[in-house]
């Protein structure tokens, strides 16, 4: 496929969604791994795998997945989380590539993959370049407190199980700083996007 594939990543509360929205508003396709993963998580074979790994305690009596119980185990048990990721991640990647092919068929040359665990999963090696969105630690917590029902302690625990931003920076080709206003972030995105468009036009 003749395309320029960019991985977009960042920790919880970093503002990755803000960057993705800016890209979309400028006509750039962004494929969201979380949306795909959510769909896959509701498939019967995935639910069977969850039952196998996590047991019946994360399911309600009617057989439906209890998301509160499931999340409490998922974010505290590294071994079980790794086993589930090994099952789900290949399915997510396959579906992202299917969507990518559709955009290429429509004439898109630059496509972004919005993937929270891009680097942790090793998928940064499968894209042409990696963009990292970063923000101040306390600002990230404040944002997540506003938009989720999680406590500060729960947010900190979830941030801490992710790869530290300082380590992610080592893999990033571009860093978008999201500590300022939305306008300041969008300015960075548009400037970097223009460079990419110019680069792909020369290919």
From TrEMBL:
Residues annotated as binding ATP are 13-18
Q: What's a Pfam family this protein contains?
A: CoaE
Q: Which GO terms describe its biological process?
A: coenzyme A biosynthetic process
Q: What class of enzyme is it?
A: transferase
Alphabetized InterPro entries for the sequence = Depp_CoAkinase (IPR001977), P-loop_NTPase (IPR027417)
Q: Where is it localised? A: Cytoplasm
Q: Which GO terms describe its molecular function?
A: ATP binding; dephospho-CoA kinase activity
Q: What is its main location?
A: cytoplasm
The superkingdom listed in its UniProt entry is Bacteria
The pathway where this protein functions is: Cofactor biosynthesis; coenzyme A biosynthesis; CoA from (R)-pantothenate: step 5/5
> Would I find Kinase among this entry's keywords?
yes
Similarity section:
Belongs to the CoaE family.
Q: What does this protein's UniProt record list under function?
A: Catalyzes the phosphorylation of the 3'-hydroxyl group of dephosphocoenzyme A to form coenzyme A.
Alphabetized NCBIfam families for the sequence: dephospho-CoA kinase (TIGR00152)
Q: What is this protein identified as?
A: Dephospho-CoA kinase
The organism encoding this protein is Dialister micraerophilus UPII 345-E
Recall the taxonomic lineage recorded for the source organism.
Bacteria, Bacillati, Bacillota, Negativicutes, Veillonellales
């Amino acid at each position: 496929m003749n395309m320029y594939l960019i991985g977009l990543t960042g920790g919880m509360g970093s503002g990755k969604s803000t960057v993705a929205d800016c890209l979309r508003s400028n006509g750039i396709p962004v494929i969201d791994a979380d949306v795909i993963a959510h769909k896959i998580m509701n498939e019967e074979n995935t639910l069977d795998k969850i039952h196998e790994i996590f047991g019946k305690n994360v399911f309600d009596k009617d057989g439906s997945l209890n998301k509160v119980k499931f999340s409490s185990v998922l974010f505290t048990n590294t071994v079980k989380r790794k086993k589930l990721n090994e099952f789900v991640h290949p399915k997510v990647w396959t579906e992202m590539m299917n969507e990518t092919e559709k955009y290429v068929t429509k004439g898109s040359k630059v496509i972004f993959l919005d993937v929270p665990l891009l680097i942790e999963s090793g998928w940064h090696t499968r894209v042409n370049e990696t963009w990292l969105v970063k923000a101040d630690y306390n600002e990230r917590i404040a944002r997540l407190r506003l938009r989720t029902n999680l406590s500060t302690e729960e947010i900190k625990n979830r941030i801490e199980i992710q790869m530290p931003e300082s380590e992610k920076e080592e893999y990033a080709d571009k860093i978008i700083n999201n500590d300022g206003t939305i306008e300041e972030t969008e300015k960075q995105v548009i400037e970097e996007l223009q460079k990419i468009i110019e680069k792909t036009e020369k290919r």
